[in-house]
Write a structure and sequence with these properties.
- The protein is an alpha/beta fold.
- The chain folds into two domains: 102 residues, Arc Repressor Mutant, subunit A (Orthogonal Bundle); 243 residues, Vaccinia Virus protein VP39 (Rossmann fold, 3-Layer(aba) Sandwich).
- The strands form two sheets. It has a seven-stranded mixed sheet with strand order 5-4-3-6-7-9-8, with helices on both faces.
- Helix 2 crosses helix 5 and helix 7 runs antiparallel to helix 9.
- Helix content is 51%, strand content 14%.
- The protein is built from 17 helices and nine strands.
Length: 364
Amino acid sequence: MSAQANAEIRDPKALQAFAGKVSGSVTAGMNVALTFVGEQLGLYKGLAAIGPATSQQLADKTQLSERWVREWLYQQVCIGQITFDEAATEFSMSPEAKAVLADPEHPAYLGGMIHSVVAMYDTLEHLPECFRTGLGQSFDDKGEACACGIERMSRKFQQLHLVPDLLPSTEGAVAKLTEGALVADVGCGAGVAMIEMAKAYPNSQFIGYDISMNALGRARNNVREAGVKNVQLHNPIDQPLPEDGSFDLITTFDVVHDSTHPQVLIEAIKASLKPNGTWLCADIQGKSSFAENLKENPMATIAYSFSVMVCMSSGLSVPGGAGLGTLGFPESKAREMTAAAGFSRFRRIPFEGDIFNAFYEIRL
């Protein structure tokens, strides 16, 4: 340590505490990778199914090497995700651990988020250049693994809550969909939301738009596997939203804050809606300023982390991109930008089925 730096440190305990904080972040980073490995290899599911169990029993269950399984278990016990009975030399999972790590159907399951974070690691080498040039990376620049992780993150809400809970909270949407409506899902990703709506409302037609070829590829596979016939998929670069006011309903799920030109997108949505149509917009919950997010938003740390790695980067992936960032489209901004585009009605839907998103019903 330089003499100048040493002289600036007046409180050794404060130095130790700060170093400990950074060390904890390093440990957490390694744990994300090892949690991903456990999720991918079925170690959590296996232990949840047979635990309490020895390392050999878990290795037999998952058909993996016992020595590797044992060392992984030791790390998981140390981090606090798995428990250990010293007398019986057995490992087990608490009910909370099973929900978060072993049950993809549980609302608290975080496997998709872990997958997304690990997918970001592959693009870290390009991040310094983004800082130098100001240009970010598109979703396709981040590879198919990123698209897969995002699909897994959003799948629970879209499958469990969209049709039974959220759509009925939107004025007149269910009646139109039941009778037969034309619907666009803009930024459809892997198409999960659109497929759920298409299955529930076979009289309606659904068109998904996305500029990510990786996402569209996953969407095509998902549509084919679901067997739905009332779904089309378009790349808006080749087949943009029509400006003929033909859609009864347009949905966007965590799309606007990622857009390179969000105001242009909002204006295109307006031009595509029927006069009595509805835009159902979901976007990340946030406050109107950094100071408010710092003080009041418990998700601020993870949101700003995702922003640098994914969301702001996507918004800056072309010259002149807006780069709103993960928390850059809060309700105040959404009201401002939609009003500027000519929308006159804006209602926040009182829905608490998703801890990350706010939901807006927006009309002409």
